[in-house]
Amino acid sequence: MQTYIHFDLIDVIGKRCVKDSFMTVEDGLIKEVGLMADLAPERTAGAVDLRGKTVMPGMFNTHIHALSSPIAAPESLNGETSGMFALRGMRHLQQHLASGVTFVRDMNGRKLAEVDIKNALKLGLFEGPNLHIARQCLCMTGGHGCNTGRECDGPEDCRKAAREQLKGGADFIKIMATGGVNSDTRPEFSQLDLEEMKAAVTEAHRAGKKTATHAHGKAGIKTAVLAGIDSVEHGSYIDDECIELMLERGTALCPTLSTHYFTEKFGAAAGIAPWKVEKSKRASEAQHIGLEKAWKAGIPITIGTDAGTPYNPHWGTYMEFVLFVEDMGFDPMETLISGTIRAAKICGVDSWTGSITPGKHADFIVLEESPLVNIRTLGRVEQVYKDGRLVDLPPVDKSKTD
Ligand SMILES: [Zn+2]
C-alpha cells in the first residue's frame, strides 16, 4: 500500500477543493481519501509527500483519432500499412498519457490497427491510457469518413455494420449524421437518416454499448438525438430546438473546440487546404453561440479535442480546458468536471474511473498549482499515475505537433 500526503484535492463529485488531503492506494485502486488532520502520524512513514501540489483525476479526452497524425493533411497517410498505423497510434496514445490524460475514446480506426493497440495495451506490452475504440465509424456511401469507415446504406445494412463493429471489439458505435470540415462534404447537410441511425443505435444499446454521432448541421443533430444517440460530437450548428430535445433525452455534447482553434491558428500558411480553414471558421463562429446556450441550459458537456486533425496534437488535451475557461468563460470547476467524472459518465465508465473515490482505479495527476486558479497548469502536468503506478514515459516534445 502507498500513502500520498499533504496535497490539495480536486473533488469533482463534491465540486470543491479539499485542502491538506491524504489518499492511500493498494493494488492499483484508491483505498482511502481523507484529511491529514484525521491521519494518525505513524501512518505518514514512507508516504509520498505532495506538499504544495494539487491532485485531481486524470483528464479525459472523449474524442480523438489515435491513428491520425496531426499534420497539415492527415489523410495523405491513409495509404500506410496497418503496422505503421499501430506504431503511430501507440506513440499518440503515449503522448496522451504523458500529458495527463488517462482515458481516451478513439473515434475511427484504420485497418484494424486500433484493435491491435487495444489488445497490446490489455496485455501490458506498452504503457497507455484507458482506451475505448469505435473501430470503423458507420457512414453513408460517399459520406464523411468513407475513406476509412464502414459505408452502409439502409437500416438493414446499418444494423449489420453496427453488429460487425461490436463483434470485432468496438467499445461504442460512432455514426456519421452530417458532412464534415475535413472532407469534400458539407457539414451543414445531413447524411445517414433516422431509420439508418436508429438501427445502429438499437444494436449498440442492446449490447450495452454507448453511441456517438459526428454531427455539425442542426437537422443531423436532431435526427441523431431522435434516433437515441448518447453523445453529439462537434454540434457546431446546435440551436434552441436541438438543445431542448437533447435536454429531454439526456443527450451529451462534445464540442471539440480545439480542432477549429488549431486549424485557424496554423491556417493555410502551414499548408492546410484553404477550403478546410474556411469551413472551420464558419462552423466555429456558429458553434460559440450554440455552445454557450447548451452549457447554460445544462446539457452534459464533455472534453474532447478531435486530436489528429490538422496540427491538433495528441499532447494538447489541456487546450480544450483552456478554451472552455478562457474563450467560452465557463466555470473552471464545472470545466474540470466536464473533463473527468462527467466525461466518465458519458462514456459509461464512471463506476471505475473519473474521480478520486475509494474503490476506483488510481488514475490521477499531480499539478504544481490549482487548475481552479490557473487552468493552464493542465498543460504542465508534473506526474501522472495510472492504476496507482507512476507513469514513466519520455516528456512530450511540444516543439512538434506530431
Ligand atoms: Zn473527429
Jot down its keywords:
402 residues; alpha/beta; Urease, subunit C, domain 1; TIM Barrel; 2 domains; eight-stranded mixed β-sheet; four-stranded parallel β-sheet; 11 helices; 32% helix; binds zinc ion
Description:
By secondary structure, the protein is an alpha/beta fold. The protein folds into 2 domains: 2-57 and 355-390, Urease, subunit C, domain 1 (Roll); 59-347, TIM Barrel, CATH 3.20.20. Helices cover 32% and strands 20% of the residues. It has 11 helices and 17 strands. It has helices at 82-98, 113-122, 155-167, 194-206, 218-226, 240-249, 257-266, 274-297, 318-327, 332-338, 341-347, and strands at residues 2-11, 16-26, 29-35, 48-49, 54-57, 59-64, 101-106, 130-133, 138-139, 150-151, 172-176, 210-215, 231-234, 252-254, 364-367, 383-386, 389-390. Strands 1, 2, 3, 4, 5, 15, 16 and 17 form an 8-stranded mixed beta sheet that branches. α6 links the parallel β13 (231-234) and β14. α7 packs antiparallel against α8. The longest helix has 24 residues, at 274-297. The two termini are 37 Å apart. 55% of the residues are buried. Bound molecules: zinc ion. Residues 63, 65, 107, 306 line the site of zinc ion.
